[in-house]
Design a protein that fits this description.
Length: 709
């Protein structure tokens, strides 16, 4: 059960351990934050900036948090109201105005994100995105990095202090997100040092807290989580807030578990300048909130208690006003990003997985008998985990057994397809472990771990169930490097099974849909069709510095026709390098995955029966694509068939066909043809599945018709 502080509601006169200088600085920072908001509002109305969202009303608890925490030592996952926190940690008004005007020198994002999307490499403020709640699981992963570094002895260079904590904040409305509960579950279960600050201003844009939260209080809902310290405090009182946060920080530093500070604050301004709270807040409610405004109440209190004089308060105001005017003028005069800079940092500028250094395909060192894709994937992970102790493997059922005391009694699970079998026994439970049954949890934590320098190779059990993680994959993992102007990155490998051609797979165990990921900049998408290619491409994925979606076709896991001996621990295939698996002269088939073998069978049949020579290209890498190999083949054959397992309409092959028609038109003697699945889902009955998915006879007939054109 959560531990609730007994002193959370006591009054405070001076704040524990705070000097006069501290108290005056707290007032200065609160006022500075508010005045930056006011200046941005003015600039927005003058059309000199393009968006504004304020932290007004939240300043007291945020300055208190900044005073209790350690910049460049602790880690920070703030949200858009956290201006006062960032100022207290060391971000300057100039840096904030640089973000507001979208300047090239903006340290938050280089003009790529809206203002108040905080990020600062030197201060350990991890780049924030717009979706609400996605930061929770990443903060948990960031805190988990401390645990893994501490426990993995083979990692010699451990970038940890031992008592650092991870700060993560959100508004009360964001606690409605499912990822909030997933994050609390894992943080409490692993006793991770995460300080969650919930800034409760009673509104999520226009939706009040009683509509968002059962009982109107998130504190009441979380009180049964184990290892959790719960503090509830008046967040408009900086001294009470400082004491509550100090207790929470100490709890986390002592590694007792996570802590929640539930701070009751106000929101005197509308949600943003795109909102007008007058439409849903009556005057009496706004007047009551104004009575708690810390910008008004705190300096008055300092004077009343004899801490400061009116002249000192006035001097601070004059200093703040001057500082803001200078900062705004500097930002407005700063150059904008060069337009072509938009192309930078989609992928790593330092490690190019398409380069020759990743191409050892022509020099395998084979050992042993030919074996399956499952076995060579497993062998690759064993080799790589031996080479690099930073590699972590986790997901649903990937461990041999969660209860380690059973290891001597059972054979072990190692994934539902046995790809990770034996990894836990060999590398230990701190590097190979099971996750909750929650896909967003897996990917979100992996992002946080990778941000701290670890190398997660995670498994999503079925492509059909990847969708809860799509938010993390699309809006977080893929964008992190680009949106932070290369300040942060998360080179995570996400292994996921996909595809049909297995009797009984039906709607929810036969999905493909690679185009959902190939359409996302920042992701590498890989799809091997043979055991040998799977081994070499997975090794490249792990050694890459980019996020990789690694698609493993279930039907291909144990096929005899794609077996190969173990090619050795340095065998790599570069991304973006297709393979001509059958040479031909009459037409080209561009394909990947399980359709490769069916295309080969159809091509052989056509040549033997009708003398038609068909060239088959296995893409292997779906993003990037080897357009040069495709073009070279079409220039030779002058006809092309795109074959793929996804639905015919709007699928991955549609983009291939469109680009081929655009770029290879001068060499085409026939329209670009496609063979794919029907525009339906995959059925359970074998006859349904056979009709829906492209079969050898479908491919052969399309080749025949294309050749005759």
């Amino acid at each position: 059960m959560a531990t609730r502080s007994r002193t959370a509601a006591r009054t405070a006169k001076s704040g524990a351990g705070l000097t006069k200088a501290d108290l005056l600085d707290m007032h200065r920072l609160m006022l500075l934050s508010r005045r930056i908001d006011d200046k941005e509002i003015q600039l927005k109305r003058q059309n000199k900036i393009f968006f504004q969202i304020s932290g007004a009303g939240h300043e007291a608890v945020l300055v208190a948090a900044g005073k209790a925490l350690r910049p460049a030592y602790d880690w920070f996952y703030p949200y858009y109201r956290d201006r006062a926190l960032c100022l207290t940690l060391g971000m300057t008004p100039t840096e904030m105005f640089l973000a507001a005007v979208g300047a090239a020198d903006d340290p938050n994002s280089g003009g790529r994100q809206m203002p108040s999307h905080w990020g600062h490499k030197q201060l350990n403020i991890v780049s924030q995105s717009s979706p609400t709640g996605t930061q929770f699981l990443q903060a948990v992963g960031c805190a988990e990095a401390w645990l893994r570094y501490k426990r993995i002895d083979d990692i010699k260079d451990k970038p940890i202090h031992g008592d650092e904590i991870v700060y993560c904040s959100a508004g009360d409305g964001t606690t409605s997100e499912g990822e909030w509960w997933e994050a609390l579950n894992t943080a409490s279960n692993l006793r991770l040092p995460v300080l969650f600050l919930i800034e409760d201003n009673k509104y999520a844009i226009s939706v009040p807290v009683e509509v968002q939260t059962a009982g109107g209080s998130v504190s009441k809902l979380v009180c049964n989580f184990p290892n959790l310290l719960l503090e509830e405090v008046d967040g408009s009182d900086p001294l009470l807030s400082y004491e509550a946060i100090t207790r929470a920080v100490e709890w986390c530093r002592q590694r007792k578990g996570p802590a929640i500070v539930h701070a009751h604050v106000t929101r005197p301004y509308s949600h943003s300048l795109s909102d007008d709270e007058i439409l849903y807040k009556p005057p009496r409610e706004r007047e009551e909130e104004a009575k708690r405004d810390p910008i008004v109440t705190f300096p008055r209190r300092l004077i009343e208690e004899g801490v400061a004089t009116a002249a000192e308060i006035e001097a601070i105001k004059a200093q703040v006003d001057e500082e803001i005017q200078i900062a705004a003028d500097m930002a407005l005069a700063s150059p904008q990003p060069k337009p072509e800079s938009a192309l930078l940092w989609v992928y790593s500028p330092d490690v190019d997985p398409t380069s020759e250094q990743f191409d050892t395909e022509e020099d395998p060192h084979f050992t042993g008998e030919p074996t399956t894709m499952v076995d060579l994937l497993n062998a690759c992970m064993k080799d790589e985990m031996t080479r690099d102790p930073r590699i972590l493997v986790f997901g649903e059922d990937v461990a041999d057994v969660s209860r380690e005391q059973y290891l001597k009694e059972v054979k072990g699970k190692g994934g539902v397809f046995k790809v990770t079998w034996g990894l836990q026994r060999q590398f230990g439970s701190d590097r190979v472990y099971n996750s909750p049954l929650a896909e967003a949890n897996i990917v979100g934590r992996a992002i946080g771990l990778a941000t701290r320098g670890l190398k997660p190779v995670v498994e999503i059990q079925f492509f059909d169930y990847i969708w809860p993680a799509y938010h993390q994959l699309r809006n977080e993992l893929a964008t992190l490097r680009w949106r932070s102007s290369n300040a942060f990155s998360a080179p995570v490998v996400v292994r996921v099974t996909y595809g049909g051609y297995l009797k009984g797979g039906s709607v929810y165990h036969s999905q493909t849909g690679a185009v959902v990921f190939t359409s996302v900049p920042g992701l590498r998408v890989i799809c091997p069709s043979t055991a040998l290619d799977a081994n070499g491409l997975l090794r490249t994925a792990i050694r890459s510095d980019d996020p990789v979606i690694f698609l493993e076709h279930k039907h291909l896991y144990r096929q005899t026709y794609n077996k190969a001996p173990n090619p050795g621990p340095n065998f790599m295939i570069p991304f973006g390098k297709a393979k001509v698996v059958r040479a031909g002269s009459a037409l080209t088939v561009v394909t990947y995955g399980a359709v490769v073998q069916r295309s080969l069978v159809a091509a052989k049949e056509l040549e033997e029966k009708e003398g038609v020579s068909v060239e088959v290209i296995d893409l292997r890498s779906l993003s990037p694509v080897d357009w040069d190999a495709i073009a070279a083949s079409i220039q030779k054959t002058n006809k092309v068939l795109v074959a793929y397992e996804d639905a015919t309409s709007w699928g991955y092959g549609a983009e291939l066909a469109a680009r081929i028609a655009d770029q290879c038109f001068p060499w085409l003697d026939a329209p670009v043809r496609r063979v794919a699945s029907t525009d339906t889902f995959v059925g359970y009955a074998p006859d349904l599945e056979d009709f829906i998915l492209p079969q050898v006879e479908d491919l052969a007939q399309a080749m025949r018709e294309l050749h005759a054109f």
